[in-house]
Specification:
- By secondary structure, this protein is mostly helical.
- The chain has a domain at 35-82.
- Helices cover 70% and strands 0% of the residues.
- The chain contains three helices and no strands.
- The protein is rod-shaped.
- The termini are far apart.
Length: 82
């Protein structure tokens, strides 16, 4: 009965729905995008700062490791001489 009311044939299933591509789903903030863009920019900047800090710490630790290995090598050579 509902199908006849909307002019649809019985036996065929048809449901209208709005999708993101449909013009009926217009959201002004999506068109401008300024708020979302600033949030994304801030999040990416924070991630980059965190990455830079972690990378700097990793490079410092690698340098310390190289220095320790050099000290160990010198200590072994000195031990052999003694």
């Amino acid at each position: 009965m509902m199908m006849r009311k909307h002019g649809l044939e019985e036996g065929k299933a048809h449901t209208e729905c709005n999708t993101l591509l449909d013009l009926n789903n217009f959201v002004p903030s999506w068109e401008d995008g300024s708020e979302e863009a600033t949030e994304v920019s801030a999040a990416l900047r924070k991630l980059r700062e965190d990455y830079d800090l972690i990378r700097r710490n990793a490079l410092d630790k690698d340098e310390e490791l190289l220095q320790l290995r050099a000290k160990i090598k010198r200590a072994k050579e000195e031990e052999k001489r003694v």
